[in-house]
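We treat protein structure as text, and this decision shapes the records that our systems exchange. Below, we set out a record of this kind in full and without editing:

***
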Amino acid sequence: MRICHVITKPELGGAQVSTLNILSDLPRDKYDISIITSAHGMLEPEFRGLENAKAFFSRFLVCPINPVFDILAFIHIYLIYRSHKYDLVHTHSSKAGIIGRWAARLANIPTIIHTAHGWSFNDYQHPIVRKFYIFLERITARVTTKIICVSKHDIDTALRYKIAQGEKLTLIKYGILLRKFRGPKTDIQLKKRGLGIANNDPVIGMVSCLKPQKSPADYVRAAIEIYKEMPAVNFLMVGDGVLRSQCKKILDATTLNGRFIFTGWRRDVSEILDVLDVVVLTSKWEGMPISIIEALSKGCVVVATDAGGTSELVKDNVTGYIVKPGSYRQVARKVINVLNDRQLFQSVKNRAYSFIDDSFDVSRMVNEIHNLYQRLTR
């Protein structure tokens, strides 16, 4: 079966990592696989180096709306479709999801699948912009054979806003490489020194792209509040993005005595998680945050905002703590309370570790997608 995946940008994010896992693990004897993505992003070498997939890089695929580039991207993708005569197209992310599905319709691709890694619309957009994105999702759903949602929350959202009827929606949750995250622990002291931590105090971290969706400034503000009561603590910001300068500006107005460290993008997240005692995520909206699955798999205590499918992973007061988006003081209070109670801290860690079982492994996710492909093209 000739299949083509399309994703906007090969940046280091949940949608991209999930797509890479799918492309790597689909049965090679069943599929002739292609991937179309942008030419720029941290994961570009990984997409380019896929052994069982042909990669096409379009310089016209950009995240912001750009009418000229979007039209050129549409034409480029359409021409790739036409020249390879795919049996199935599977799109990911908002921009590639809209352009890729309409190009597939025009190219008469018989089966069109889209994974909504969180919807393109959210409560923080201008009402007119939000209505426009809802309209785009509705009309594009009409040319889609099946829409995969990564959380129950996204299915409920699709039904509430009449994006599609229930029979067109299916739930396939993320899977991670459990063998990677459940492998032997790293040398914690060595890893700490490599990160610039020269003490044995607790380490709090956030693993995220520094963009508006993730609201990293709220994590910085929470860190400042925590430090006021617990100066013997370290903070890591693992990731990078457009809001890094804003975060640093907030930090410049106070002092954490060098205890807040920006690591930038890292490829050793599984090792860094071994160092972290508490993982924080301050997102305003989400699909299903892979970073939280990874953190729970390591037994980290998680304090996260109630965004998208996060509460399907973090059971409040059981496997971690849930607070309202924007409530950085609540984030700080939860972190302080759990670090001050070592018995509570250990019990939450144990429950978090036990929550992640084989159903969160990438093999389950890929198997469900493989079965979906077979059903839809039979």
Remarks:
- The first strand starts at residue 2 and ends at 7.
- Residues 214 and 283 are 4 Å apart (CA to CA).
- The two ends are 11 Å apart (CA to CA).
